[in-house]
Amino acid sequence: MVDTNDVFTDKSLVKEDVTAVSTDTPWYKDDSMIWILVGSVVAAVLVLVAIVILFVVCRRRRRKKSWDLGWNDTDCILESKSAPISRNCSPKLEKRKSFPDALADTRGKMVRSLTLASVPSFTLPPERVQPQNGHERSCSLTAMQYQQHLIGHLEPELYRGLSFSDDSSLCLPPSEYGRLWFSVLYDAAVEQLNVNLVKVRELPGRGRNNAPRDPFVKIFLLPDERTCRISKVRKKTLSPMFNESFTFQVDPDSIRSKTLRFSVYDVDKRRVRHSLGHVLVNLADIDILKGDSMFKDLELTSTMCASLGDLQISSTYLPNVDKVKIVVIGARNLRQIDIDQNNSLFVKLQMIHGRKISKVKKTMLRPSTSEPVFNEPFSFSIHGKIIDTCSFELSLMTTTRTPMSHDEVYGRIVLGSFMFARGEELKHWQEMMSQPRVAITRWHQLNPVTHHD
């Protein structure tokens, strides 16, 4: 029989062995193994760093060697880094001298200037001038003598003075506003005054570019301003040629008291006429029986006319709605107006911001009279911040009731601040601004057009 105590004893031994095995430490937790692993990693890193350092050092030595070879080679020019070393060097050319005959001094430097002693002697070839005729062929003439001889034998007929009517013969000073040529001849047998309009020169151009104009001329026999003669319009020119004749029926007793007026105008693309100047000729001061051609400079205003008339307007400033209300009431004393059933009058209002036209409005057409009545209100929206930089230009216009109507500026006024207006027009503006919502009514004298549009 088996002894039970031995069995129990064997079981206890087996249990102790299992316990001993279970309590043993694994290999990766051993300190010696960890240090071995760390040491191998460090060694690998050091080897890698050493390889990199060795590679860099070798590369630098090779580059330095190539640069040393390039600098030490006296027969070649240093090449750029991008060029291959095997490329052949360009040949070294000899420096060109600015003075080939220059010599070197004792110091070995080039001498760029020579003394007169080193300049080679030379002589000019004999001058070959063809003589004037066979008698002088054996004579030797210089060039200056030959030229003087030619000048002395010029034909005087080739240099005869031109006629007085030609522009090239007139040594006249330049005209600021233009110059007009005309002739006047009176025929007492038929009591007719013949006026020949020849031409106009040196008219100012349009705008800053001096663009050409479309000028024409109106001829009046003052003091009668209702009857005039009108020339044809010349297109795109500043020196128009007219060569037109006009007749006026005048009796011999009153011919010396008459004054001839030439008014030059320009027609723009909008069919608006602009005055360019006037010429006044008192028939008592010229010889009207010869018909000689004469000229005279243009003037901006006609000195024979005292006033163009007055225009009555009313203006109101409404700051609560940022508006200016202007009422064109009427005009008076229009002495120079052409009273004709085919003519009409109207007033053009322009609101100008700085120098730019913002709005344009017109009244209805009225018959051509010396005292027309309009009574038409107009409203303009203006912000309070820019009202000091705005002005109103009111122009009294004349037009003809024909299919080819022409608008002409008779006179104008400017209503605005001190930057745009003066005199009574400035006082009117200041009074309107100081009394808002109050209508200010005044008469203003019409001014002639003195600037070129």
UniProtKB/TrEMBL annotation:
Domain C2: 176-296, 307-430
SUPFAM superfamilies the UniProt entry points to: C2 domain (Calcium/lipid-binding domain, CaLB)
Transmembrane segments: 33-57
Cellular component annotations (GO), alphabetically ordered: exocytic vesicle; plasma membrane
InterPro entries for this protein: C2_dom, C2_domain_sf, Synaptotagmin-15/17_C2A
GO MF annotation: an example: calcium ion binding
GO annotation, biological process: calcium-ion regulated exocytosis
Keywords: Membrane, Repeat, Transmembrane, Transmembrane helix
Protein name per UniProt: C2 domain-containing protein
UniProt source species: Pinctada imbricata
Taxonomic placement: Eukaryota, Metazoa, Spiralia, Lophotrochozoa, Mollusca
